Amino acid sequence: ESVVNFLAEGKLVSLVSEKVGGGPRRIVVTDLTKLKGFHHLVLSVDVLASELRISTQDQVLYTCSLEHLAMKHFILPRLDLSQVRMRLSNFEDYFVKVAPKKSLFYLIDKCSQKEYESSFEKVLVESFMEAYSPLGKSSLKDVLLAFKGKGLGLTPSGDDFNLGFLTALSLQGSVYPEYFALARGESVFVNSFLSELEDGQVNEKTYNWLKSFEESEENFKEATLRLMSQGETSGADWLVGFISGFDIQTNSGRLYAT
């Protein structure tokens, strides 16, 4: 009831609720309940009628005037990088506190590993720890390959990590096309998000969180909670990657670039 995804020329076009928020190739609509239960839908644009339509083979389910489509573009903002680093450092304990259970924050806060109980989960944790622990001696390319496709879910945790990691590098002007190529895999969702980021675009919640670095600490906390609300753990996993992307560039934390 929150997102309806369409595949167009290998890229995603999504209808999303206001709660999910806008972004590249996202159309914010007020009511998606009419589309619930249908597995095969077609999104089309009638230029003459200036109308977007969603239909089955024999029934139009949803129409919207093109003039009222809320498809917004959120470009990576220019930020004071020293301020970003300082706030990331000052708020690390807060991030750990509000992060959803079983997110990748156990890579930063070892106590969070206690949330994993089954033997399968423990093997998964060990796999991520193995990918994360040698990063102090790894190149940026090795970081991306170590996390690529690792984990479960619609967007695996390792891919969410890579998206956050590449966002941090992009803000610092330290990212190259080959990094995005290395991060791409089998998931059309992940590849679509990577293409958007390579074009310098992010979704609305990510943009608002980045802009909140220039705002009060209270606003920053609220934006962090909204960021963390993306997916079951996707927002938190993205944030771990983002933090790591700043660490690896500054040579002041857990990671070091070569």
Describe the structure.
The protein is 42% helix and 14% strand. The chain has 10 helices and 8 strands. The protein has helices at 81-90, 92-98, 119-132, 140-147, 157-171, 177-183, 188-198, 204-211, 217-228, 234-250; strands at 3-8, 11-16, 26-28, 42-46, 51-55, 60-65, 74-75, 201-202. A 3-stranded mixed sheet has the order 1-2-3, with helices on one face. A 3-stranded antiparallel sheet has the order 4-5-6, with no helix packed on it. A two-stranded antiparallel sheet has the order 7-8. A hairpin with a 4-residue loop joins strand 4 (42-46) and strand 5. Helix 4 packs antiparallel against helix 5. The chain starts with a strand and ends in an 8-residue tail after the last helix. The relative contact order is 0.15. Residues 252-258 have low confidence and may be disordered.
How does the SSE layout of this entry go?
Elements: E1 3-8, E2 11-16, E3 26-28, E4 42-46, E5 51-55, E6 60-65, E7 74-75, H1 81-90, H2 92-98, H3 119-132, H4 140-147, H5 157-171, H6 177-183, H7 188-198, E8 201-202, H8 204-211, H9 217-228, H10 234-250
Parallel strand pairs: 2-3
Antiparallel strand pairs: 1-2, 4-5, 5-6, 7-8
